[in-house]
User: Fold this.
Amino acid sequence: MYGEREISELRGIVKNARSAVFFGGAGVSTESGIPDFRSEDGLYHLKYKYPPETMLSSSFFWSHTQEFYDFYRDKMLVTDVQPNAAHLRLAEWERAGHIAAVVTQNIDGLHQKAGSKNVFELHGSIYRNFCTKCGAPYPVQRISEGKGVPRCACGGTIKPDVVLYGEPLNAETVEGAVEAIRRADALIIGGTSLNVYPAAGLIDYFRGDHVVVINRGAPAKDMRDVLFIDGKIGEIFQKI
Ligand code: NAD
Assistant:
């Protein structure tokens, strides 16, 4: 739990920041109704024939493409949701000149929907899809409005531009995120278990003074000199 002391400390950090970076994960979107992976009601606790890490791997995509799409459409492809207070506040703080960038592990596009402009999507986005053979781009409806494996006019398989387990992160996105974190005067981490690498390792590039972690439960990474606020990020940001 947390009290007024933590809230007012966070308020001060945000107010004084000129180039802060927000680094977030699936917990940022749970208050919008998208389940995360590792919470009790997260995807890792649902029973499927295969574990989520398997179904979201590159090798599974190619060997079990139909089953990949069944899971992906059922659990990952969520478009009828709205940004919550956490996304909206971050967009406001960017407009006010406090936040320089949002670095997210999420693929749901909610930061952009809330109005954030400088967003580094480390794991890609459900809103971008392309043919694996000819590279033609496709809108998200091409995936959501069908049942089978989506195919391009050229016959190639269409794949969402999301980073599956076993695939590298996009180098340009990583470079941009690292640069923003290196230059940041404050780092606000929220809604992430910091279990997924290499994404979680990027926060090590931070050289500034203030690190805040807002999460339900302590994240996996051991961090010193951190303002840790244990609670729901949307609820907490609304108080700032
Ligand atoms: P995770 O599921 O491993 O961890 C989420 C963390 O957020 C947990 O520690 C949980 O206790 C905390 N949390 C949940 N709701 C919260 C809230 N309202 N306020 C504060 N904390 C909250 O997620 P991760 O660290 O992002 O790693 C999982 C991977 O799965 C990531 O790569 C991510 O891309 C992907 N993923 C994305 C989405 C999405 O796009 N919305 C959803 C599920 C998984």
